[in-house]
Amino acid sequence: MVTARATRQDDDVGGQDEARKLRRRIEYRRSRLLQDAREVSELFAPHLAVLAFPAAGSPTLFGNPTVESVLRSFLPAANGANAGTETADQAAARVAAMRREAGSIKARVAQEEARLRAIAEIVKAAQEEQGREHWWEVDVDALGEAELPEFATALDVLRADVLRRLDKLAKAPKARQRR
User: What is the mean pLDDT of the chain?
Assistant: First the structure.
């Protein structure tokens, strides 16, 4: 009887290994399918939708320009009427405009980050020049008009952080006393 149990347990372990291997193969094939779909859409810019519905878990979706626009363009609506009013070309133009806008926003963000880095360098230089240990001790008269609003914002953030930490420390002993 002990031998039968051991064999049954071995079979269960073997079955678990097989199930694990199957899940890994399915995951590998799903990721390869999505990778191939991305490559095809980048190389040839077709209107492409891939929907994968696994037996367990959430579905995987990929679309170029979007899954919804591809489905609206090529599949009839559920009520038998024509598909959505947006054609594939219109969807592609809309997505291209969104990508241009995202590129413009990225450029503005990079420009703002460079401006803030320059201000930080000016504050650091003033700190070193004045022999101050911390950046918040810098004499504001040494800063220019462009640096003052950012300096004030940084001081407000520092103040809020210090107050938040003080509040946390003030509540910590109360929690220890309740135990």
Answer: 79
- Specify the pLDDT at position 100: 92
Q: Please state, in angstroms and as integers, the Cα–Cα distance from residue 138 to each residue in 114, 120, 151, 160, following that order.
A: 21, 12, 10, 19
Closest-CA residue to 73 (of 53, 49, 95): 49
**Residue with token string 């372990």:** 13
Per-residue three-class SS string for the chain = CHHHHHHHHHHHHHHHHHHHHHHHHHHHHHHHHHHHHHHHHHHHCCCEEEEECCCCCCCEEEEECCHHHHHHHHCCCCCCCCCCCCCHHHHHHHHHHHHHHHHHHHHHHHHHHHHHHHHHHHHHHHHHHHCCCCHHHCCHHHCCCCHHHHHHHHHHHHHHHHHHHHHHHHHHHHHHHHC
Residue 166 CB coordination number (10 Å): 10
pLDDT tens digit sequence for 24-50: 888 888 888 888 888 888 887 777 888
Q: Is 138 exposed, middle or buried (0-12, 13-18, 19+ CB in 10 A)?
A: buried
